[in-house]
Amino acid sequence: MSIVTHKASGWSIGSGQPLAVLAGLNVLEDEGLAFEVATELKRICSGLGLPFVFKASFDKANRSSIKSYRGPGMDGLKILAKVKSKLGVPIVTDLHEPAQAEPVAEVADILQLPAFLVRQTDLVIAVAESAARHGALIQAKKAQFMAPWDAKNIISKIAEVAPDVGVILCERGVSFGYNNLIVDMLAIPEMKKLGVPVTIDATHAVQLPGADPRTGGASTGGRRDGVAIIAKSAVAAGADGVFLEFHTDPDKALCDAPSCLALSGADALLATLKALHEAVN
Fold it and tell me: Is residue 60 flagged as an active site residue?
């Protein structure tokens, strides 16, 4: 299996590499919180010797309700640029429209294709072209309706546009009936057969789409206690990296509060995941 490396920062993921950590906030709320979470996660990952990328969305375009908090929009890229510059950490963020690809690639080191949009050809082309121009990587989330082996089409579509751009696949569960997701751990080795590193989005994998009792189904619910279980299971199944979202006060998070973890527990969880990764490999 190949190793994917971001040349500018030296961050790597793949065979023989330490467990990669893509972690941060679900969505940007304010600059202070972004720096607090990024600083703490950088400290933890540095102590554990784990390659760290800070994650935060500037816009959550796929919301259950028009009233749901979406984030600061494109202005959020300024916050991400400050975090990157002052803390010296790579950035990963998602985007939703082809026109966003170039400005996002000017800041982010990993461009993330959302699961619901991963088959949108115009978006994939724009992301691939911008990633190639700026030396960025691409993390593509496998759609909730897609079989793991069908992810080969994501990789080939990117390769036709930008054959030299490194691609990471991300597992985040598959739709199972109404308002539920499941994660088939066999999907991890299946996607690794495609020759790319694979991460697990343990946060979004515990979502209960459209099933938040606090809003009568106007937002997504979640099972926070399941995040660590899924993360550990995926690492044991061979995942090369973990994608996790934290908050200083999860219950007050402005987006997907039921699914995000307390920042205070990040140290213990990441230490456990590191040990599992080393045992498996």
Answer: yes
Residue 281 is among the residues annotated as catalytic for this protein: no
| Active-site residue, from 84, 94, 256, 274 | 256
* Active-site position among 42, 55, 59, 60: 60
Output the CA–CA distances (angstroms, integers) from residue 201 to 10, 21, 139, 183, in the order listed: 22, 11, 11, 10
Round to whole Å and give the CA distance between 88 and 107.
Answer: 12
pLDDT digits (tens, 9 = 90+) for 99-135: 999 999 999 999 999 999 999 999 999 999 999 999 9
Q: Which domains does the chain have, with CATH numbers?
A: 3-280 (3.20.20.70)
180 is catalytic: no
Task: Report the C-alpha gap between 169 and 80 in whole angstroms.
Answer: 23
Among residues 26, 192, 212, 240, which one is catalytic?
26
Burial 214-243 (b: 16+ CB within 10 A, else e): eeebebbbbbbebbbebbbbbbebbbbbbb
Read out DSSP for 165-190? S-EEEEE--EE-SSS-EE--TTHHHH
Residue 133 sits at φ, ψ, to 5 deg, of -65, -35
For 1, the token pair is 């299996």
Question: Under a CB-based contact definition with an 8 Å cutoff, are residues 205 and 173 in contact?
Answer: yes
pLDDT higher at 102 or 220 = 102
pLDDT single digits (tens) 104-114: 999 999 999 99
